[in-house]
Amino acid sequence: MEIALDEARLAMESGEVPVGAVLIGDGGGVVIRAHNLRETERDATAHAEILAIREAGRILSQWRLSSCTLYVTLEPCPMCAGAIVAARISRLVYGAADARAGAVESIFNIPGHPSLAPAPEITAGVMEDECKALLREFFAARR
Question: Residue 70: enclosing H or E segment and its boundaries?
Fold first, then answer.
């Protein structure tokens, strides 16, 4: 999660909502790290999770990421939660819950929907205080 937080800080430095992600392979090594680029790329889909999944597919030469764990600083939105399921990521670890758009546990439970399988193992609240603090700092500066 430290690496994901580093990515979130890079996003914040670029004027992006500070969300970072890192995908870890089955051997424990970093496959890819990413952060939000929605403003930079002028792309509504350029969330950290989507960018990480896309690049990991290229690096690993496959779309099935079933041997990977995705760490992300903020609970994924519906689009990202769907992509996590579609990529067959086996484990999702996130920091801060998202009461406004969280689609893993807060508002929706897309990964746990019975018609979408297999569901990733979910671990929530990892370094939650640090993840929340970064988001609070970003949005306080915007107001």
Answer: strand 69-74
Dihedral Cα 120, 105, 24, 118, nearest 10 deg: 10
pTM over 0.90: yes
Q: Which residue numbers are catalytic?
A: 49
* Amino acid at site 117: A
Reported as type and span, the H/E element at residue 139 is helix 128-142
From CA 19, how far away is CA 43, in angstroms rounded?
15
Q: What secondary structure letter does DSSP report for 92?
A: E
- pLDDT, tens only, 93-141: 999 999 999 999 999 999 999 998 789 999 999 999 999 999 999 999 9
The DSSP-derived string for 97-129 is: --TTT-TTTTS--STT-TTS-SPPEEEE-TTHH
Residue type, 2: E
> What does the alpha-carbon distance between residue 20 and residue 105 come to, in Å, rounded to a whole number?
19
- Residue 52: both structure tokens together: 């990480």
- Which tokens is 141 given? 């500066």
Peptide bond into 118 cis (omega under 30): yes
